[in-house]
Amino acid sequence: MIPAPPGCPAKIPRNLAEGPRRCTCIRHWQGCSCAGMVQSMRRLTRTKIVSTIGPASSSEERLAQLFEAGVDVFRLNFSHGTHAEHEQRFRTIRSLEERFERPIGVLADMQGPKLRVGTFAEGRVTLPMDATFRLDLRDEVGDKSRVMLPHPEIFAALAPGAVLLLDDGKLRLEVTGCGSDYADTRVLVGGTLSDHKGVNLPNVRLDISPLTAKDRVDLAFALDLGVTFVGLSFVQRPEDLVEARGLIGNRARILAKLEKPAAIQHLGRIVELSDAIMVARGDLGVEMPTEDVPVLQRRIVRACRRAGKPVIVATQMLESMIQSPTPTRAEASDVANAVYEGVDAVMLSAETAAGAYPVEAVTIMERIIMRAERDPAYHRTLHVEETVPEATEADALTAAARRAAETISASAIVTYTSSGDTTLRAARERPTVPILALTTEHAVARSLTLSWGVHPVFAGPSRSFREMIGAAEQRAVAEGFAEPGSRLVFLAGFPVGSTVNTVRISEVK
């Protein structure tokens, strides 16, 4: 039998009154001596997993399996499903949170503007290369010469020479002439075009809000539910974040989805105005050369790490597992490369929403993450490009906490936070030891489920710094991070709510 890995929660006596719980480490250590009878739900990986919920993963049993397999944040995709379905899924997630006594994040992903052609008399047409084809606002079924494009904002932004991509780039049209209600084009790359296929305009910024009328209804509903994150699609400029913040306020964290090349021109400002970022590689890959996407992914990840903002890499990570019980070797490498880049999270879309193997997809993704993070070169890779702290007391103390924890081989860095800022600073340092985040706010604990290396825990208020340390030591032992005699590094602002002003080393009694 293989011994339990370091920090395995098997060292903690289980609460027989509650009944046994399954040890998460058995996903990675076959035959672990903990025998799966533990009280903690501690993750053994730093990189988090976001899983999309859909028809293949909506039941309470399946959601519980996904959570136990490694999911930290569940994504509700408002491009599909009814409000009643989303509410039922949300309620199930919150009941699982109570059952497992561990915060679970919920991302409400807004659909955003969907630019699509209208319909054809026969459902589809074939456009040969060099053919002429018109797009217009006429509310009539299309044919081989024209089709309706019900988006006047597109015509307002077009000019001769502009290129339109249809059906995820399968067809390519060049504008030869245009007006306020039409565009004449020449077919550069032909093919079959059917009803309601999407339209992309690379290098064209549209005067359009990322929040449609549908999105505003969905947003109000999601905020009333109490979601943790709101995913904002079609972000093109900083003003889009300002508009969203005016509607959302502090009721949820804003996650900007970078899927339009126009957004990259304002990358620094968009990262600054967002609470988190998603690298939406699918749409980026349609509107820009495929070979540019990996380079841009690294650029976005570096920008987010410098700013201390969580970043997700999404789209086609294990796509073959929609139909297959195992991924391709290229997909495994893709996930591992994202881990080596230091992303906060990787995301599964159709793999868990509609795939035949949702639990297997999460399990394998967790195994890939675990293997990459166990590589001795992993932490060296993370710090090839050091994050330079700002010239503030809070950043100086956070950097010192990381170095202290690594120097003394502390069991964990413990943060006390009321807003999450202290913990985000600690995560930005990418320490070699885990981060145990204690907070009095449920919403803050849930928001930290997306952050690299953070194990968030809801904790009651402390009246003094001594009481804070005592409570943290007890929680560190209960959560499987420490045992009597091990050392912890505390990072906090006291009184609670203050900016980071204290670093302290403590030996667990």
Computed structural class: alpha/beta
* Principal-axes shape call: elongated
What is the name of the CATH class of the largest domain? Alpha Beta
CATH-assigned homologous superfamily of the largest domain: Phosphoenolpyruvate-binding domains
Instruction: Tell me the CATH architecture of the largest domain.
Output: Alpha-Beta Barrel
Instruction: Return the domain count.
Output: 4
- The proportion of residues forming helix, as a percent range, comes to 25-40%
The radius of gyration is 24 Å
List the uncertain runs: 1-39
Give the N-terminus to C-terminus distance in angstroms.
Answer: 31 Å
Lateral strand order in the biggest sheet? 1-2-3-12-13-14-15-16
Tell me about the largest β-sheet. 8 strands, parallel, barrel
> Would you tell me the overall average pLDDT?
89
Number of helices: 17
Q: Remind me, CATH topology of the largest domain?
A: TIM Barrel
Number of strands: 21
Task: Please write out the topology.
Elements: E1 48-53, H1 60-69, E2 73-77, H2 83-100, E3 105-109, E4 124-127, E5 132-136, E6 146-148, H3 152-157, E7 163-166, E8 171-179, E9 182-189, E10 191-194, E11 199-200, H4 213-225, E12 229-232, H5 238-248, E13 253-258, H6 261-264, H7 267-273, E14 276-280, H8 281-287, H9 292-307, E15 311-314, H10 329-341, E16 345-348, H11 350-353, H12 358-374, H13 378-382, H14 393-407, E17 412-416, H15 421-428, E18 435-439, H16 442-447, E19 454-458, H17 465-478, E20 487-492, E21 502-507
Parallel strand pairs: 1-2, 1-16, 2-3, 3-12, 5-6, 12-13, 13-14, 14-15, 15-16, 17-18, 17-20, 18-19
Antiparallel strand pairs: 4-10, 5-9, 7-8, 7-11, 8-9, 20-21
